[in-house]
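Please fill in the sequence for the structure shown.

STRUCTURE ENCODING:
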């Protein structure tokens, strides 16, 4: 499983800030059973600030994921950027109910951030994925031509005389 590399051993680290860098690609997402991306190339920088009572993790990701356009089904590279702050505290038992605070047992010597990274990156991709060529009109595809053919023609809107009479009531005060 590729997620083991996301174990951050903090027990041997001194207090202060420590930086970790990761390159995330498709096998990472596949290990979670997520296959919406054709390809992924994301750089992740994690800054761990270790204090005597807790750990503060600041994660910043930047890169691209190759996805299919929702309109044309053409693949394209969607740039993404995401960041997440996570506080790790120590307690009697593991508790990840809160999105921003993780409680791990006192006896732990490492923390796994894979689930947090996965959620952060999947949520960074827009829900509606539209090829940039569709937006600027440069993409030529069969799907776009068919959509233009099937697009409803604009009709001149005729007003309903019943509504016109009701509108007069509003202005006759």
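FILLED IN BY: designer on duty
SEQUENCE:
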């Amino acid at each position: 499983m590729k997620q083991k590399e996301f174990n951050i051993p903090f027990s041997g680290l001194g207090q202060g800030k420590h930086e970790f860098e990761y390159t995330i690609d498709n096998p990472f997402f596949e290990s979670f059973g997520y296959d919406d991306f054709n390809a992924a190339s994301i750089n992740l920088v994690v800054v761990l600030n270790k204090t005597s009572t807790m750990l503060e993790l600041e994660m910043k990701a930047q890169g691209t994921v190759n996805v299919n356009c929702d309109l044309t089904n053409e693949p394209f590279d969607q740039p993404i950027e995401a960041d997440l702050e996570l506080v790790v505290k120590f307690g009697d038992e593991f508790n990840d109910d809160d999105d921003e605070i993780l409680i791990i047992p006192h006896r732990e010597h490492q923390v796994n951030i894979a689930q947090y990274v996965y959620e952060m990156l999947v949520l960074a991709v827009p829900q509606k994925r539209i090829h940039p060529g569709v937006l600027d009109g440069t993409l030529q595809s069969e799907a776009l031509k068919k959509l233009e053919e099937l697009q409803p023609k604009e009709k001149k809107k005729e007003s309903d005389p019943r509504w016109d009479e009701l509108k007069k009531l509003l202005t006759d005060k």
